[in-house]
């Protein structure tokens, strides 16, 4: 309610400043004039919206609807497909690789999202303190952001090659056994998570750093005067006040994790034995390797539904998150 | 006339649009300049063609030279080469075919050829090729560009795997001689003996062998099946035929590579580490490899290495690697496209291309007379000899329109057999089910 009143006052003030007709002016204007004015405003609004709506339609809505249509077909992409109803979805239900890929996607999301946020927040707190050479450290952490996912994964291949990789050579040099990063399922999954964290933590740190720099130092000073220790200041001042950043990063990290492709595709190819297969790599393999595009589209639609469900849940949560400010 | 800044920008944008589209691999189909091409009739051909391919530096240089000579021989003909990375080659081609603006000509591996030919995307060359054209090629090569007995391309070159070996590693293991003729190739038992000797002499983190069956190279595993005189498709090229004694021997023998520690565990079919890299790093003493590796190997390796024939079981065999050149059905100038395809498969053209790029010819005359690679020419007879062991009944199966799905079946099941502990019986049974599903409706 308060927000609505505030918005109303603000709008009125803005209208006065910009010279737009006030409520009293509107009352004195003729109905015909008011109608033309509203029409012109609407026209201008739609004119501004049109480019975005066109782009949205061509690159999002049309492909999305097409994917849903294709998911009900058996097609290799050439010529007209054959309508098969819900056959592709029924096949998903009994496809162990699909379920393995779904489980892997969920597990990847559940591990990478909190870890990358925690590490990002920890790094941001460090980089926001009096750490020496923090400019250099910030650059080092942010550097992976400048590299594409494919290039990052190629570096990962050099590190995690189980015959000649840097990591296993280091492990052996200190007397530890080599890890089967490429032929062991759990180790391969861990390698994907580690490379992803290396790639993503810098981004998380950057967002948190921006959030931290918006917190007034007086709040920390007040907390210190009230006897709060370092952990208490972090727990009761920092964490709540970077809530909007956390909310943004939660959304971004979850969506990224649902859509993970390049790192898995290059680093492990989904193997060994589908241990690192995720929904997007499985859809890619079906769509572009096996050329079973109807089935691939069905996997894509499932991914879309999962993302929509998550977004809907977060939409509800976001109403309370907005109150932080 | 004075141009405004806006006019210049619009003009520059319009001029650069075709370049941008071509750079993205979306060049529009060729337009003919009129005049008509003569194709098989032998007269000068005119018009413009777009030709999309990937390739090593040596292959692209070979294509450029061939295009220059074609254009000189046919005044008025232009071929625009569009070289793209292999990784995006077929997603681009598929998108262009679906959008109705494919290139006139493109290069395609034999195992992918069937996907296009069997789905009506390629130009039927029957009426464009002169009579007796098929006699030019080896039966295996000609079989590889057929779909239901109709030619949809020309076999430009082939490649097949032989065994490259690290001389010092073999000598240390007491393997002092290797087969020098196809007939003397190691039998499977003898090969296993060599692997065992190497296993004994090598440290635990080094391996006797690495197989090049990663990714779509899983078709190279079929060599072991063909060496046992087996088939994965029956003669109708639809029914699965892999559940046989030959299939059992092939799965058992190759599974043993992993259980006996003859290959590193990350040498499985879905590994992202290529077998050649394992051998380059001297992690393995031997590797199965195609001739296309020779230029890189010769320029980068600092150890002595040689080549010998792949082992034989019931008979010698090889994977039918390499690529065909095909014209798309939508080409605006089929005569000119056909003329180009005929030109690049002429004797001199094929010899120059294959020698420069270390690839094997598909013409019967060149296979018989031999060819000298520009790099390590003394290895040419090994590769050419191994290629002669490829039979038409083998290569004909690999060009099945369902091959892309069959490849997935082979990858999944061999991965389970090699590193997942799946029994040979279960593997063959699952392969049979998968192949039957893949070819259903063919």
UniProtKB/TrEMBL annotation, chain A:
It is a multi-pass membrane protein. The keyword Lipid biosynthesis does not apply. Residues 102-314 form the ABC transmembrane type-1 domain. It comes from the Bacteria. GO terms for biological process: transmembrane transport. Its main location: membrane. GO terms for cellular component: plasma membrane. SUPFAM superfamilies: MetI-like. Keywords: Cell membrane, Membrane, Transmembrane, Transmembrane helix, Transport. It is found in: Cell membrane. The chain crosses the membrane at residues 43-70, 106-127, 139-160, 181-199, 234-256, 294-313. Belongs to the binding-protein-dependent transport system permease family. This is Sugar ABC transporter permease.
UniProtKB/TrEMBL annotation, chain B:
One of its GO terms (biological process) is maltose transport. Keywords: Signal, Transport. One of its GO terms (molecular function) is maltose binding. One of its GO terms (cellular component) is ATP-binding cassette (ABC) transporter complex, substrate-binding subunit-containing. Residues 1-27 form the signal peptide. The keyword Signal applies. The keyword Transport applies. Pfam families: SBP_bac_1. Belongs to the bacterial solute-binding protein 1 family. This is Sugar ABC transporter substrate-binding protein. It comes from Subtercola boreus.
